[in-house]
From TrEMBL:
This is Macrophage migration inhibitory factor homolog. SUPFAM superfamilies: Tautomerase/MIF (SSF55331). Belongs to the MIF family. GO terms for molecular function: phenylpyruvate tautomerase activity. One of its GO terms (cellular component) is extracellular space.
Amino acid sequence: MPCLNLSTNVNLDGVDTSSILSEATSSVAKLIGKPEDYVMIVLKGSVPTSFGGTEQPAAFGELVSIGGLNPDVNKKLSAAVAAILETKLQVPKSRFFLKFYDTRASYLSFLIVKRLGHCHLFISSHCISLFV
């Protein structure tokens, strides 16, 4: 499941976040080659951020995917997400940074999904998360 976490110092009050989420979902799915049903987008606004020593509109993103990433895809993803943020939030493309994590399955990287009542536990070589 590709997951794109986006944080920006832009206040999202009054912003049509649904259009940002749907456009980002579509772009990520298309460029990585995964179904939209598997793509997660997390958007956080009003995050105190300094980029280049100023607090002008800026954004940071982290994209995690099991496969589907390579230098060409990453370049296209950066451009697509930057265009969405520039259009929807007025974050200049030059004030956006996107970090990529390709968590390819191997003997060192594994994913266990175990349903514990209403909790979901995700364990991988990169993180352990508990969602309630």
